[in-house]
Records
---
Amino acid sequence: MTDASSTRQSIPLIIDCDPGIDDAVALLLAMASASLEIRGITTVAGNVSIETTSTNARCICELGQRSDLKIFPGCPRPMVRPAIVAAHVHGENGLGGIHFPSPQLPLQQRHGVDFLRDSLLQASSPITLATLGPLTNVATALIQAPQMAQNLDRIVMMGGAVGAGNVTAAAEFNCYADPHAAQVVLHTAAEYDVPVVVIPLDVTHTAIANPARRQALRNLHNPVAETVATLLDNYGLREQRDMGFSGPPLHDPCVIAYLLQPALFELESVPATIEITSPLTQGRLVIDRNRELDLPGRIELATSIDAEGFYGLLTEALGRFS
Ligand code: BDR
Ligand code: CA
């Protein structure tokens, strides 16, 4: 694999995820990009159980020919509310029912929260955190050792909806699955002046893997790109039908794309929090453009993505696999 971006200084990165089809694509995009130095992958319960997200992370590392990566299994359930899963979107195995060989890559013995906390406490230079699932691991680590935030360069997260949600009318999956954790993360980051880039559903819903974009991946004729195209054929079919999309939205890879090519996105700096108490709007990303509420959080909210540029980046990156 060669990557033109490898000449740039690399970004030390921890990826917290719940694979999940779009998490899998995000992981592969990161693995294909030499400018990202993946220090570790932590898994969390979300799209499917912690056992399954952890197995899937192992399968995806092997698919991406990166058995050198370390995977640390994290929290098996949200902080307060009962767990929900999204097997109806990602399939019972979290990977659209596609069969992967049993992975040989072992899971690390250390808990994901311990890895996150200690990596940040001991970091000699700032680390970027990419979050692709519910924020349970990150919030737990921040509660244990809030000073770890001093070594966070930034958090880039997929989550939240400014318009309609995808689990309830108000809430997007990652924020709905563990709203308390999401609130802890936003508030603690603000307290320590850590930038939080939030890529919400409103943006990822414009990054659709339409048939032409899936065909472009297939045309790369390598096993990774072909597997991604097959995964996307099976992803979120009900959501596509309900929303009138011509393919699945690629939520989580937007996080990695932001790290690689931030110019693909427009951002707006806004005060924000996550609603945790209201039964109707629990998990809502509340933004206060008019600065009326004196909210404790502040985010860099993505408001648009250059979808053609994003798919160009993804296709080029996956073309690096042999
Ligand atoms: C988010 O929820 C999950 O189903 C996806 O993996 C993504 O992280 C989109 O709402
Ligand atoms: Ca995810």
---
Amino acid sequence: MARILIIEDNPANMQLMVYLLRAFGHQTFESPEGEAGLKTAHQETPDLILCDLQMPGIDGYEVARRIRLEPRLKLISLVAVTAYAMAGDREKVLAAGFNGYISKPINPESFLGQVDTFLPPDKRLSSSSSNFPSRT
Ligand code: MN
């Protein structure tokens, strides 16, 4: 179980990520834009931050830049959730300070596994696979 902050302006994407993460036992915090997301990051120091790139106000790149400048936040795993799956954008995302990215559209079958790889080892679902809800 991990504490995960999601910064995403698209309500459908937000809803899907929250649903999947909570279904597998994670705790979520939600922000529809970057400034509020940074504030929540300061308040909650989550285990992982999932962040959209294109948002009104400050974009995901700016969120990443500010998080990496904060001593209290700079070691938090930060993952871009982005529709930009083209070559070149990966480098841009990593250069901005993200640890990696998950491509949109969100794939419910693989999303939790992708998130897991970015969590601290002791917060991963794969370290306690018996807690997985049965999938029929
Ligand atoms: Mn967006």
---
Amino acid sequence: MVSKTKATLDRLVIILGDQLDPGHPLVAALNPARDAVFMAEVREEATHVWSHRARIVLFLSAMRHFRGDLEERGIKVRYFALDRHSHASLSAALAAELKGHRPQRVAMLQAGDTRVQVAIEATVRRARLPLQVVADPHFLVEPKTFQAWLGQRKQPRLEHFYRAMRKQTGILMQDSEPLGGQWNFDAANRASFGRQGPAQLPPPPAFSADKVTREVIRLVNREFPEHPGALDTFDWPVTPADAQIAVRDFVDHRLASFGTYQDAMWTGEPFLYHSLLSPSLNLKLLNPRDVLDAAEISLQDNVAPLACVEGFVRQILGWREYARGIYQARMPEYAELNALDAEQDLPAFFWTADTDMVCLREVLAQTLRYGYAHHIQRLMITGLFCLLLGVRPQRVHAWYLAAYVDAVEWAELPNTLGMSQYADGGYLASKPYVASGKYINRMSNYCKGCRYNPAHASGDDACPYTTLYWDFLVRHRERFAHHPRTALQWRNLERLDAKTVAGIRQQADDFRNSL
Ligand code: FAD
Ligand code: SF4
């Protein structure tokens, strides 16, 4: 806890755990003689969803390193460290600080999470102090610019937004045309590894825990012993310098194969050619512009081909900014959407990985071990299972927000509710991402070691994905059978006779009841 001595402060700058930007504009404008920074580690941020322990360690360790850097620069930091007696919530810690030190004014970057922004605004208002909220320059598009782009569009589309961003930034552009004559190399980004599996994979760099991180690990083990997730594998970057090393390593060793195998999965290989940069980006240890520059340079230097670089750029310049724009524009009502009226509970094995479905066991086990799964694992293994089963989207959201080290609500919620669960009725993504076990079989080797058969929808060895897939098609026939983007997929139902359909539906019900 901080001491209670009174001091006269001009400006108090609030810095949140996901605003650890080394170029933070309000820090750059600080007057060290009269201003101070406020940072707080609070239990609420680790418990409002049942956070993975590695996620808690990542945030707290990165915050403590950031505090150290500020103090080295002679900046006063009013830092509330987490212990048994610390404030339960950010609002409580901030209220105590405002009461104790009575700054003239308070300033902050716009919080990523609307819940946090609302709580801070209310606390500062109660203290009768002025609050300056500055747009977060980390992002390439400001909320009001996104809102203008969104305009009256009934159905925004990533592809349109992405092209506008390419034109706006000039990234992968030649004059006003896309480099290589194509906006999108998506079709070249869907290879699987075939029977032989991936070649020798370059291991991602490991950042071993320093004294600060070791102390935080002890704290988290002590304070959150019942929380899910392992800590013995914790090796995420917690400083901007380490995050830069991670970018260099990705660009030099994995980017050249990233695009090609973006959607592929393989048993025992959680990372493949992915960048693992989302935690550093989301905590703002990394600036997306630097990451995009590094990718473009690797193309110019012939280190990585255009299709791979474009595939990567699309994720950061496209999806990441798009998700955040939709979140800012549609919250808070977005969080409550449930277009498919899904009401099932989340299966308990999501917290233990104790299931005989090999694909789910693999992805859940690596999630609990590392706090990481790559995009297709999140979308087409865990997400797909919840969508087909009919789990209430808000329960799925709470799990994703808890389970991954990179989880921040502005990125997680649109991906979960919009892209993965179709809870927004097709606003973010035009069609539901539904597939049977055959898709998983094509993109991975998971089915090889599984007791189920991905080709079977009924019978003892029927793959639950395949059963639930056909069941989903039947349950939502009315909504999708005449939709231009989904009609083709639903037409397959016409091949099944009534008896087969009844059998599949019974098997799906039995499966649901067995969970
Ligand atoms: P790479 O595959 O190497 O991709 C490069 C970068 O692109 C990522 O680091 C990330 O910053 C960005 N990116 C890629 N896809 C997306 C996307 N769909 N939305 C936003 N950014 C993207 N991402 C998060 O950052 N936080 C989350 O909480 C989160 N929750 C998700 C939940 C679900 C259900 C799904 C389907 C996706 C979620 N994603 C989330 C998006 C994506 O899965 C992760 O960004 C990615 O897996 C992170 O691993 P990586 O850094 O190795 O990414
Ligand atoms: Fe998963 Fe079905 Fe394949 Fe088993 S058979 S690994 S449950 S997709």
---
Amino acid sequence: MTRPSVLFVCLGNICRSPMAEGALRKASHDAGIAIDVDSAGTGDWHIGRPPDPRAQLVAREHGIDIAGYRARQVTPHDFLRFDHILALDLQNLRDLKVIAPAREQSRLELLMDLVPGREGTAVADPYFGDEDDFRTAWNDVVRASAFLIERLAR
Ligand code: 4NP
């Protein structure tokens, strides 16, 4: 079996999707399941930048170092590289649908659709918030990662 691949996509690739990447890397390691994990943003403002210091802080609170990640912009080619492309919010999902090649739309999902009771909801953008908003986003991506691991392990 080839290892599954997962791409998380938010707006800037400096807050939510790097936290999701860090959370899934840790969860896959703990579960002993090999998964290729990456993250990207729909926007181009932060290309090449490390995650927001608050995202790094919250990940570090959970023993995860995301300081070495660098932001990049999602491309249509990502739909050929990744089995699963997970949008962090509904605007990210709409933006991804526009660039997804028609026959690859099925790879695309809203991340919180993986969490029973949270279908159709967003991982709220913490960028204009405070550290607790980052902790809320962290909790969301950790929960979703657990369901994703369960699905990929089947
Ligand atoms: P992210 O957060 O999409 O979770 O990385 C944001 C980062 C930057 C901006 C907005 C959201 N921004 O407006 O620059």
